[in-house]
Structure formats: structure tokens, C-alpha cells
Amino acid sequence: MDIVEDIKRRVASGKLKPGDRLPPVRQVARQWGVALATATKAMNTLQQQGIVRARPRVGTVVAAPSTEPPPEPAPETALSRERVVRVAIELADAEGLGALTMRGIAAKLGVAPMSPYKYVGGKDDLILLMADAAYAELGYPTPLPEGWRARLELVGRTLWTLHRRHPWLAQVTPLSRPVVLPHLAVHAEQALAALEGLGFDAVTRLNLHVLFYSSIQGLVVNAERETQAQSATGLSEDEWMDSQEADLRRLVATGDHPAFAAMLEGVGDGYDLDLDMLFELGLKLQLDGLATMIEAATRQ
């Protein structure tokens, strides 16, 4: 296969070094003028041969040399629903949900294209199974921490960890069309239980829970969008920002946006978008506001 041999030659010659990031699968397909399924199969072949490896939220990178022989693809008799779901999660973590295809999963598993359908009904069914499996990765201790604030902090940080690990989750559970996932319900139960006994009616508790969850979802969706943007443009976040510098300078030069200009001057080159820091700030502001609401309710 031309893609496989070309990339192997680049690695052997040193043009591609361990840790170097390869283009996303969609970009590979465009660059070589092949179908997405063909590009996916080529990248999976390289991974099976130990030439490259997938790194979550980074993509496919050149693997370090190893004395270990690459693992042989498992026979179809070793397939199971759990294995199909696990491989699908690995693909979505590395390339984003938009790059997930049943053919790509089959190629990753080293089986015939239709084989995964024996275990899942199709892509939509698979995505729900993936989400439920991801939400099941973290649970809650016994006993739980004392107090509503400590419990909500625990729920918030647990959900944030899961969403950062699997940014595509934010695409699966929209607020306007909630899906019933048993393991997502575990997290909702913990949050709603923490809000009980604080003097709020059922509608207010639900509103608070929706806002709490949406603040996590709203932030982490940017991580998934960044994965999609890199796949579509081939530009990293820093490269994209560099491409916008001239337009920003022209905008500031108009003098029409003094507050924006002052902000840019103040941060200079020292600002990095830190989603984890923003999550912690948002969590504190939400819980501080909730404490004010509780205090006001007790005075009535």
C-alpha cells in the first residue's frame, strides 16, 4: 500500500522521528487521493506494525523503536461487544467522533468490515454504548464527603475528568435531547442528591443541575472541536492563532475596540487557554453563587 510504504520510508530515513505527529486520517486521505476507509486501513496497518501509535487528544504519532514484535490482530472469535466498544473509544479519543466509522473500527480490529455489526446495531447504537462505558470509568467513594459543596465539587471534578479523557462525550449528550445512559444517571443522582434539603423546589433543583452539567459540557466541547479543527485544517492551535495575528492587529488598529485592545496588550504573549483552570474558576463561581442562594432562602 503506497501510504504505508511511504510513511515507513520517511520513518526509516529520519524525516519522521519518534513523537512526530502524523496528519489526521481525513488529511491523509486528501493528501494521497484515496477514500477515507483506505486511509484508515493504512494508518491501522502502520499501528499494527508498531510504526505509529495513537495518543489520546494528540492523534497518531511515530512510535519509538521497540524490540518487541507488534501484536498480531486478534481473530474474529476473540471479538465481543466490549472489545468493539473499547476500540471505538480509542479511535474517538485519538481522532474525534467525526472520524469514527464502522469500517475504521473493523480495520483497527483486523476483521472483515461487517464483523462489528454482529455485536452492535450500527454507529448510533455504538456511540451510546461508548458513552455509557466512558461514564462508568469513574465512580464515587463510600462514604461520600460531608456537605453539599464538597459533594458537588466531587461530582464536578469526576465529570470533568471523564470529559477531558473523552472530549467527544460532549457531543453525545445534548441538553435539548438528553439520552438515557445508566452510568450517566449515576453522576446525575449524586449531583441531585447533593441539592436535596437545601430549600429548593424540584424545578429549581433540575435547573441548577442542568446549569452545573452544561458548564462542564460547554467548556470541554472546545477540546473536541479543536480535534475536529486540526483534522479539517491540518493546523495546530498555535499555528491557527499565528494565522489570525494580522487580522487581530488590523482590528485593534481601528481604535473601535479599546477594551479589547487593552486586554490584548495586558496579556501580551503570555496567555494560554487553560481549560482545566477555567473549569476550576467556573466551579468556584457556581458554588459561591449557590451558597448565596441558599443563604437567601434561609432568611425568608
Folded structure, characterized:
This is DNA-binding transcriptional regulator YhcF (GntR family). It comes from Nonomuraea africana. One of its GO terms (molecular function) is DNA binding. Keywords: DNA-binding, Transcription, Transcription regulation. Helix 7 (about 150-165) runs antiparallel to helix 13 (about 275-300). By secondary structure, the protein is mainly alpha-helical. The mean pLDDT is about 85. It has three domains: about 1-60, Winged helix-like DNA-binding domain superfamily/Winged helix DNA-binding domain (Arc Repressor Mutant, subunit A), CATH 1.10.10; about 75-135, Arc Repressor Mutant, subunit A (Orthogonal Bundle); about 150-235 and about 250-300, Orthogonal Bundle (Tetracycline Repressor, domain 2). Strands 1-2 form a two-stranded antiparallel ribbon. It contains 13 helices and two strands; from the N terminus they run H-H-H-E-E-H-H-H-H-H-H-H-H-H-H. Strand 1 and strand 2 form a beta hairpin.
| CATH superfamily annotation of the largest domain | Tetracycline Repressor, domain 2
By CATH, the topology of the largest domain is: Tetracycline Repressor, domain 2
* Number of E-type strands: 2
The tally of domains stands at: 3
The CATH class assignment of the largest domain is Mainly Alpha
Q: What is the general shape?
A: flat
- CATH-defined architecture of the largest domain: Orthogonal Bundle
Taking Cα atoms only, what radius of gyration do you get, to the nearest Å? 23 Å
How much strand? under 5%
Reported for the largest beta sheet, the result is: 2 strands, antiparallel
Determine the number of helices (DSSP H or I, runs of at least 4 residues). Answer: 13
Give me the secondary-structure category: mainly alpha
Organism: Nonomuraea africana
Keywords: DNA-binding, Transcription, Transcription regulation
DNA-binding region: 101-120
GO molecular function, one term: DNA binding
